[in-house]
Amino acid sequence: MLRETVYVPILHFLSAERPEHGTSSHSCNFKKGGMDAKEGTQEKVETNSAACCKEFPNAGRALLHARAVAMLAAFIVSGLFHELIFCCITQRSATWEVTMFFIIHGFANVFEVFLRRKFPRKLPRPIAIVCTLSFLYVTALWLFMPPITRSGADLRIQAEFRYAQNRVVDLFSRYQGKVNDVPS
Q1: CA 68 remoteness from chain centre
Q2: pLDDT tens digits for 86-145?
Q3: Residue 139 CB partners (closer than 8 Å, separation 6+)
Q4: 3-class state of residue 77 by DSSP
Q5: Who is most buried in 82, 93, 102, 179, counting CB within 10 A?
Q6: 124-162: string of b/e by CB count within 10 Å (b at 16+)?
């Protein structure tokens, strides 16, 4: 959703090509070998986005700084939405820790793209996975989880799950008893 509503519009705004009013700036209508509505003929259409999108032929080659700004904007908007969700869950005012979590991850993604372009040799997959998960784990413990644990929302959610689990177990045990009581 954020790609369509934040990333792509900002990317197109910052790039040299700008869509005209009323045109689709971010979606290519891929046809998978279907009927052409105008001519009524069967045709094979390429699924390459660069060949398909006539409106933005250079969209795949947007400048790195435009992509970085668009990516950061998407992460900031995501952080603000998550902050709102956390305010609703915890029933407390915003601490901005969750938004900071997303901003840090946005900068980390921009930095990763920069490193991949600067050093095209890939890091071995197991090492990359460990690095990514470690970074996610540390920042989640530092910024993402504290607003939930401070408010006690995690304990309330666990209690609600236990209550729901008990109701389901009771329902199945009653149903199991009725199945066993059926005469054969």
Answers
A1: 16
A2: 999 898 999 999 999 999 999 999 999 888 888 888 888 999 899 999 999 999 999 999
A3: 101, 104, 105
A4: helix
A5: 102
A6: eeeeeeeeeeeeeeebeeebbeebbeebebeeeeeeeee
Helix, strand or coil, per DSSP, at residue 113: helix
The domain ranges of the chain are 2-26+35-150
- How far apart are alpha carbons 156 and 139 in whole angstroms? 23
Of the candidates 99, 177, 169, the one whose C-alpha atom is nearest the C-alpha of residue 139 is: 99
Average pLDDT of the chain, as a whole number:
79
The SS3 assignment for 32 reads coil
CA angle 66, 70, 74 (to 5 degrees): 170
Nearest CA to 70 out of 119, 154, 132, 7 is that of: 7
Name the one residue in this structure whose structure tokens are 């032929």.
Answer: 57
Q: What is the pTM of this model?
A: 0.66
